[in-house]
């Protein structure tokens, strides 16, 4: 099959490109602000550019991990968030489906308010920040207008690579400089390894799964526990991780506290060692 990955230069996109390439699929990846050799430059808001890429490649599948994923930036810049998280992916989805391509979109656990997680796919959404509202809007567009699409919701994605957008990398950068790291004890979530996420996404696509699918790691942890685990795994004392509460940071966007996801489809639950290589 032929695949286009819009946002192959991002954290998920990097793993997705590698996975599809490894299994022998024909893949075209795009970048926006982080050039990558072998990838095509694309701003997904540029309709003519998207049209010409899709009509030249004629993909069977279009993946959209591209997003404006910085929740605080989205809160402060709702119009830009709307452009990037709703208007552009809607336009890509419309063009892709007109050509008969399947669409895979990456949404988020932030569609939920975090009052009583972990959440299943069937639970009603209730976002509490601009980013989550825009992801919900995009999900609803796909469910209504692009019925064969696959909508994946991961949560707190992490990887082993040197990408500043990777949480593990950010923690290790501080620890390596001998600095302690503040991590909140009141946010619960289900951290998702990038390798497991793309392995399961590929399986779901091959199975012809349609609609919303939660793909997350098997454990529910606080950010504090997660950060301590990372420190220990890389040989640092967990005492370098300082427990704090969410309130301390006074960030623009609200975070779900009692959050996290679980999938109601048991065959899509990530298993350590089988679907991903445990990092900690
Ligand atoms: N990270 C998490 O913890 C998390 C949790 C839940 C859900 N998600 C969702 O999962 C998906 C992937 O997240 P991620 O962590 O991989 O994000 P990321 O590392 O920030 O990557 C975002 C990607 O989008 C591309 N992009 C941004 N604006 C674009 C534009 N106008 N046109 C084309 N491409 C554009 C970026 O390209 P350049 O880098 O080249 O500029 C990059 O490849 C996103 O939809 C995110 O909302 C993430």
TrEMBL record:
Enzyme class, UniProt record, top EC level: oxidoreductase
Stored Pfam families: RmlD_sub_bind (PF04321)
Pathway(s) per entry: Carbohydrate biosynthesis; dTDP-L-rhamnose biosynthesis
Function: Catalyzes the reduction of dTDP-6-deoxy-L-lyxo-4-hexulose to yield dTDP-L-rhamnose.
A GO molecular-function descriptor: dTDP-4-dehydrorhamnose reductase activity
Protein known as: dTDP-4-dehydrorhamnose reductase
Ranges where the RmlD-like substrate binding domain occurs: 1-264
Organism: Sulfobacillus thermosulfidooxidans
UniProt-listed Gene3D superfamilies: NAD(P)-binding Rossmann-like Domain (3.40.50.720)
EC number(s) on file: 1.1.1.133
Family listed: Belongs to the dTDP-4-dehydrorhamnose reductase family.
GO BP, sorted A to Z: dTDP-rhamnose biosynthetic process
Lipoprotein listed as a keyword: no
Keywords (A to Z) from UniProt: NADP, Oxidoreductase
